[in-house]
Amino acid sequence: MLVLGLFVGASVALAGSADIYSFSSEQASQRFVNLTKELRCLVCQNQSLADSDATLARDLRQKVYLMIQENKSDAEIREFLVSRYGQFILFSPPLMTSTLLLWGFPGLVLAGIIGGLLYFRRR
What we know:
5 helices
């Protein structure tokens, strides 16, 4: 019985802290969900804005919501956040000279592993 009480109490506490936004359409709601999942929490770094409970993430979700309500496009919202916080806020930054190593690193590691295996196999 005590466990059930703790579970219900925790559920109520979590529900009370959740962000609740109302949208004029299902499309606007889906845009919000998609944007907050593809934007990185700058505090948590490995969580999206949608997943994070950090204060900054809540503030950024609120800003995204307001910009959607202002009929800003997804590109305008991303551009605003990138201009303010840098490319790091994007989980998938665009391919640019400054992000070339980021995009190429997995391939370099794979090539190194394959090269190392071939080298040691021939020895």
